[in-house]
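Troubleshooting log. The previous run stalled partway through. Resubmitting the same two chains, unchanged.
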Amino acid sequence: MRARIHVRLKDGVLDPQGAAIGRALAQLGFAGVGEVRQGKLIELELAETDRARAKRQVQAMCEQLLANPVIETYAVSLED
Amino acid sequence: MRAGVITFPGSNCDRDAAVALAACGAAVTSIWHAETELPALDLIVLPGGFTYGDYLRCGAIAARAPVMAEVVRRAEAGVAVLGICNGFQILAEVGLLPGAMINNAGLKFLCRSVDLEVATDASVFTAGYARGQAISLPIAHHDGNYVCGDDERRRLEDQDRIAFRYADNNPNGSTGRIAGVLGAGRNVLGMMPHPERAADPRLGGTEGKVLFQSLIEALG
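Second attempt completed without errors. Output:
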């Protein structure tokens, strides 16, 4: 099973990297780009085959390491 | 005073911290991150650097290193723990200090001396300074922008746990200009500036030496 974890900064946390990306897009001539925020995608291959167990396992990984709950949220999706 | 300085893969200020402590008379031991047991210590230092390349988040992987379970136990038992720069990031990641560090607001890696205010003298780290004293210490960081929630910040202020503040034009955008924070037990300090880089006149300043002297004074 593969897990895809999308880690994002919480709303309201300053994202200067996102802002720099926005400025670079403007410099390239892309008009109409508003706020830009950058997140992270982490992909895992899991030996677990039971979907519910895999989800619990990945959530524990997020809580313990992959996301910092002070500043980040995460979303998990699983595929066989 | 028996001090242990922990070296993680990517720590690069461990030797500077050891030299600054030894120059004040501390007995310093080097500790490797994979150790799970520690000798008797009065002070544990988490030095600056780029542990694990800052991969995932600054200090995130170091905070889960084998030695950290024992560091947390010692901190909870009242042993003094000092986290400098990446060490502060590790202490926040492991939950010994509140808040988190994100990118400097201006996006640049900042490497210069900054003016600080010593916000409290009520700790073993800062007793040698006067409350409100103006000092100058070097900073060298890219991700020193300290963030914490409003409730947490009010709690820090009410409990007099803000140890240092940037005195002017907040170089990295930190909430409340916070440059250093004490844990609830006042025995854990995290600070972004480098006191070990201002502990010898040959290196441009000695205002950091007072912090190490305060510790020797308090802990023997």
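Takeaways: Chain B has five helices and eleven strands. Chain B touches chain A through 19 residues (CB under 8 Å).
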